[in-house]
From TrEMBL:
This is Lipoprotein. Residues 1-21, 50-100 are annotated as: Disordered. InterPro entries: CE4, Glyco_hydro/deAcase_b/a-brl. Signal peptide: none annotated. Residues 51-72 have a biased composition (Low complexity). It comes from Streptomyces sp. 900105245.
Amino acid sequence: MPTNKPTGRRRATPSRRLPATTRPKILTLAAFLVVASLVAGYLALSRPDDTAPAASAGKKPSAAPKAGATPSWDGKTRVLGDGSTSYTGPQRGQLKAVPLKPGEKPPQFVVFSWDGALEGSDHLFSHYRDLAKQYDAHMTFFLTGIYLLPKSEKSKYHGPMHSPGDAAIDYATDDHIRTTLEQLSLAYEQGNEIGTHFNGHFCDAKGGGDWSVQEWKSEIDQFFSFAEHWKTNTGFKDIPPLPFDFKREVTGGRAPCLEGQPNLLKAIKSYGWRYDASSPGDFQIWPSKKKGIWDFPLQMLPYEKGKYQGLSMDFNFLYNQSDGETQGDPAEFPKWQQQTVDSYMAGFNRVYYGSRAPLFIGNHFEDWNGGIYMKSIDQVVKDVCSKKGVKCVSFKELADWLDVQKPATLAALRSLDPAQSPDWSTVVK
């Protein structure tokens, strides 16, 4: 675990009206980390130019595409390729997406997502898979492709703009490849989503922000290659195939350091992906689409009782609390942990009792500051996933639900400010 301090600075965010009772001074973080073994990256918080405004006054909402029909299945398992993966039918236990009825209050969706999805010696992948099962929740696990590629075979990875085998993160050990494969199978079987965190985790110069559309496609193709040929690459013959087809199941991802979304959006269209979680950050508003793809950004939450707004991810708390040091002053750990829980709950309560906009929380499997950010998520999962009207779902399930809503309903939902609690009969018609 690196201990070097990330660079970055606070900067003002674009203004958006919040109700007076919830209008703190909005400041947020520019430095950002999006994998546990890397402390680097720069994040500029701004609403991209092609993002639809919250209220599209005077414009008729465009028709929303519908979720694809579930293909028929003959009940037979089909082993694919070299035996690394298989098709076992449509994923079971998924949220049934139905349109809201007139006047119906939307569910409070909460999405917990994890960047990297490695089952290491800390067993955090299995811990959160178990926690999700305990609270009838589904989560999104973004797999890094080279975590299924042995270090001895690293020359097979050709990261865009980099030499063969280069990566900004460590390759997994053979034992950790084995345990990660086990967790991927169990996570899928329990209804969780497997998405992509791509491969080499390059940031800044020669990272995703510099990649062309074709270079992003190369990164995506290599992700699929490593995921679909782990048996060939590892030589493991005693592990059964994963119970899903990556090309069917992967419908979105999150780019390392949240860089390169403009070209990434152009690249993923040809793969039929339905969402992207790589936006640098936004307010707690109902999602819209960019270039026909659902945009699921990290969100700004009230930090330190509303003194400023910071992003809904563990690294941002780390940056604010210990100036980016992964192990700060232990005497401060209890206070920082409570601050983190309070911020997540403040963001949750703002929309739960307000607009019901989905809450997005992104994290890593890490032990920063004594593991307080992991302990915070443990508490938040227990506190929110058991509440009435709350559905803790994956990004894919949320996309399914959004796709079956009336365009006019979605437009009305997007016009709400986070803490605004409307007369639902005027919103859902």
